[in-house]
Amino acid sequence: MGPTGPALVYRPWTDADMTEALNHLPDPRNSDTAFALKLETFCHEFMPTVSEIRRLLTKKLGPTDFAKIRQHCGGDLRLTSPDWEDAGNAAYVNALNTLFNALKTAFPNKIEKGRR
Predict the structure, then answer these.
(1) With CB atoms counted within 10 Å of each terminal CB, which end of the chain scores lower, N or C?
(2) What is the pTM of this model?
(3) How many Cβ atoms from other residues are within 10 Å of residue 109's Cβ?
Protein backbone atom coordinates (compact mmCIF):
# COMPACT_ATOMS: atom_id res chain seq x y z
CA MET A 1 0.00 0.00 0.00
CA GLY A 2 1.40 3.36 -1.00
CA PRO A 3 0.90 6.67 0.83
CA THR A 4 -2.15 7.51 -1.31
CA GLY A 5 -3.61 4.01 -1.76
CA PRO A 6 -2.68 0.88 -3.71
CA ALA A 7 0.72 1.07 -5.39
CA LEU A 8 2.08 -0.85 -8.35
CA VAL A 9 5.21 -2.88 -7.79
CA TYR A 10 7.10 -3.80 -10.94
CA ARG A 11 8.40 -7.37 -11.15
CA PRO A 12 10.06 -8.39 -14.44
CA TRP A 13 8.64 -11.44 -16.17
CA THR A 14 10.85 -14.51 -16.48
CA ASP A 15 10.67 -16.88 -19.45
CA ALA A 16 8.73 -19.29 -17.22
CA ASP A 17 6.25 -16.49 -16.42
CA MET A 18 5.87 -15.81 -20.14
CA THR A 19 5.24 -19.46 -20.98
CA GLU A 20 2.63 -19.76 -18.23
CA ALA A 21 0.95 -16.52 -19.31
CA LEU A 22 0.77 -17.66 -22.93
CA ASN A 23 -1.19 -20.73 -21.86
CA HIS A 24 -4.08 -18.39 -20.97
CA LEU A 25 -4.32 -16.99 -24.49
CA PRO A 26 -5.73 -18.74 -27.59
CA ASP A 27 -3.87 -18.87 -30.90
CA PRO A 28 -4.94 -15.70 -32.73
CA ARG A 29 -4.72 -17.42 -36.11
CA ASN A 30 -7.51 -19.78 -35.04
CA SER A 31 -9.52 -17.72 -32.57
CA ASP A 32 -10.33 -14.69 -34.69
CA THR A 33 -10.95 -11.47 -32.76
CA ALA A 34 -11.40 -13.44 -29.53
CA PHE A 35 -7.62 -13.27 -29.10
CA ALA A 36 -7.68 -9.47 -28.85
CA LEU A 37 -10.53 -9.61 -26.33
CA LYS A 38 -8.75 -12.22 -24.20
CA LEU A 39 -5.50 -10.24 -24.38
CA GLU A 40 -7.39 -7.18 -23.13
CA THR A 41 -8.71 -9.15 -20.14
CA PHE A 42 -5.21 -10.54 -19.61
CA CYS A 43 -3.74 -7.00 -19.54
CA HIS A 44 -6.31 -5.85 -16.99
CA GLU A 45 -5.46 -8.82 -14.77
CA PHE A 46 -1.66 -8.96 -15.07
CA MET A 47 -0.89 -5.30 -15.96
CA PRO A 48 2.13 -5.96 -18.21
CA THR A 49 4.24 -3.16 -19.66
CA VAL A 50 4.08 -2.60 -23.41
CA SER A 51 7.59 -4.11 -23.65
CA GLU A 52 6.32 -7.25 -21.92
CA ILE A 53 3.30 -7.40 -24.22
CA ARG A 54 5.68 -7.15 -27.19
CA ARG A 55 7.71 -10.10 -25.80
CA LEU A 56 4.53 -12.11 -25.23
CA LEU A 57 3.22 -11.44 -28.71
CA THR A 58 6.57 -12.21 -30.34
CA LYS A 59 6.59 -15.60 -28.63
CA LYS A 60 2.90 -16.28 -29.32
CA LEU A 61 2.79 -15.15 -32.95
CA GLY A 62 6.27 -15.86 -34.27
CA PRO A 63 8.17 -13.34 -36.39
CA THR A 64 6.00 -13.45 -39.53
CA ASP A 65 2.65 -12.84 -37.84
CA PHE A 66 4.15 -10.45 -35.29
CA ALA A 67 5.30 -8.28 -38.21
CA LYS A 68 1.60 -7.65 -38.98
CA ILE A 69 1.15 -5.71 -35.72
CA ARG A 70 4.72 -4.68 -34.79
CA GLN A 71 4.16 -0.99 -35.52
CA HIS A 72 1.39 -0.92 -32.90
CA CYS A 73 3.53 -2.46 -30.18
CA GLY A 74 6.29 0.08 -29.58
CA GLY A 75 7.55 2.07 -26.65
CA ASP A 76 7.85 1.15 -23.02
CA LEU A 77 4.59 2.40 -21.58
CA ARG A 78 3.26 1.05 -18.31
CA LEU A 79 0.45 1.70 -15.88
CA THR A 80 1.16 4.42 -13.36
CA SER A 81 -1.81 3.49 -11.16
CA PRO A 82 -3.72 0.23 -10.58
CA ASP A 83 -6.89 2.16 -11.51
CA TRP A 84 -7.22 1.88 -15.30
CA GLU A 85 -9.38 5.01 -15.37
CA ASP A 86 -6.63 7.13 -13.76
CA ALA A 87 -5.56 9.98 -16.07
CA GLY A 88 -1.91 8.96 -15.66
CA ASN A 89 -2.69 5.71 -17.47
CA ALA A 90 -4.14 7.38 -20.58
CA ALA A 91 -1.11 6.88 -22.85
CA TYR A 92 -0.83 3.19 -21.85
CA VAL A 93 -4.56 2.52 -22.27
CA ASN A 94 -4.65 4.33 -25.64
CA ALA A 95 -1.62 2.34 -26.87
CA LEU A 96 -3.28 -0.93 -25.84
CA ASN A 97 -6.57 0.00 -27.51
CA THR A 98 -4.65 0.73 -30.73
CA LEU A 99 -2.90 -2.64 -30.41
CA PHE A 100 -6.17 -4.51 -29.77
CA ASN A 101 -7.71 -2.94 -32.88
CA ALA A 102 -4.62 -3.86 -34.92
CA LEU A 103 -4.90 -7.46 -33.71
CA LYS A 104 -8.58 -7.58 -34.71
CA THR A 105 -7.65 -6.29 -38.17
CA ALA A 106 -4.68 -8.65 -38.59
CA PHE A 107 -6.63 -11.68 -37.35
CA PRO A 108 -10.27 -11.06 -38.36
CA ASN A 109 -13.23 -13.33 -37.81
CA LYS A 110 -13.31 -16.04 -40.41
CA ILE A 111 -16.50 -16.76 -42.29
CA GLU A 112 -17.10 -20.47 -42.64
CA LYS A 113 -17.93 -21.52 -46.17
CA GLY A 114 -21.38 -23.00 -46.55
CA ARG A 115 -22.79 -21.27 -43.46
CA ARG A 116 -25.19 -18.40 -43.66
Answers:
(1) C
(2) 0.82
(3) 10
